[in-house]
Amino acid sequence: MVAKRIIPCLDVKDGRTVKGVNFVGLQDVGDAVELGKRYAEQGADELVYLDITATHEGRGTFTRLVERISAEIDIPFTVGGGIGSLEDAARLLDAGADKISINSAAIRTPELIDSLAAKYGSQFVVVAIDAKQIDGRWVATTHGGRKPTDRELFEWAREAQERGAGEILFTSMDHDGTKAGYPCDTFARLAEELSIPIIASGGAGSVEDIAEVLTTGRADAALAASIFHYGQITVRELKEQLKLKNINVRV
Fold it and tell me: Among the options 45, 51, 88, 130, which is catalytic?
């Protein structure tokens, strides 16, 4: 049985790690490379770095950060934020990233998924979907959850898989940063409808929350930020407690 993965997520602004609730109220929580090194030493399976400013001017700063991460951290890491073309992806992969995550650009230009998968292979392509419930329907959003689109979560995830995505990173905007648990029924339905791995994001507040999304929610990996950044638990402690619950993780 494939081990479940624990993936700390680091939102990056100007080279620093920040964290908010529902994507607003950002607070500085530390140096992006130093935090990543700490999580790697604690046994994280992978890391995700998201450039949340993703301005044209800031791309050079983020690329240099990716080079530093690659030089100092020895576990796989995914980068995302502002990737809108093959050239953007090439720049970050060349800088040392193991995978790239695309979100708004994939909704704007779905063919980008096909192009990236064709050039680099599906294993390099993570399609991130930020969705919120509107009138009982999970609606994919862009711009950090501020702009609803006409794409529905499940049909969009299926299309992304068909176009060549290697993984789906689903964040519930209703749960992000709240530490109130994940929408496990939604994750379980995604797992039922897709054949590629699903990374659960948005809502981790306790060991029980993560255990539930990896079992009831059938997610392949749990992505978390607040509980690690604020010292609520270490990656190693989390994995040891998941192991006690008979969840297959690498300790």
Answer: 130
